[in-house]
Design goal:
alpha+beta; 22% helix; Nuclear Transport Factor 2, Chain: A; five-stranded mixed beta sheet; 3 helices; 5 strands
Length: 142
């Protein structure tokens, strides 16, 4: 077991919680509080490309046409320390869309200690398919 402190574990939990607050408020300039400059982000949508830097991530996510849900909610957070300087965090997310529909996502990320605190340097998001996916593809009732 690593020598990761309780303060480190709390800081890692805070990264997960802070993600939804920053993204939902569209405070793109604050993404550096979550991610390293060289972050690799692997998105769940096949038509979206991975990003390989914080600057690229901010540019892509701040575009008006980027498909952000209106709300992100984190749950089931698992932190697996790899050593004193890195950890893997796996968590579930509930995305609430503008029309009220909800989707379940799986977040897998690797974080490292930096001079500014813990930051994610790699994240993959996977959309959890459900039996209602065909229904969600239909237009919402007016």
């Amino acid at each position: 077991m690593s020598g990761m402190s309780t303060d480190d574990l709390r800081a890692l939990e805070r990264i997960v919680a802070l993600y939804g607050h920053i993204v939902d408020a569209q405070e793109w300039s604050r993404l550096g509080e979550l991610f390293t400059d060289d972050v690799v982000m692997v998105p769940w949508q096949e038509d979206l490309l991975s990003t390989t830097s914080l600057g690229e991530l901010i540019e892509r996510w701040s575009a008006p046409e980027f498909p952000h849900p209106s709300g992100h909610h984190a749950t089931n957070v698992l932190i697996d320390p790899q050593d004193d300087e890195t950890a893997q965090i796996t968590w579930k997310g509930i995305a609430v869309h503008h029309d009220g529909r909800c989707r379940s996502l799986l977040y897998e990320e690797h974080v490292r200690r930096t001079d500014d605190g813990w930051r994610a340097f790699w994240r993959r998001v996977t959309l959890q398919s459900t039996s209602v996916d065909p229904l969600l593809a239909q237009p919402s009732p007016a």
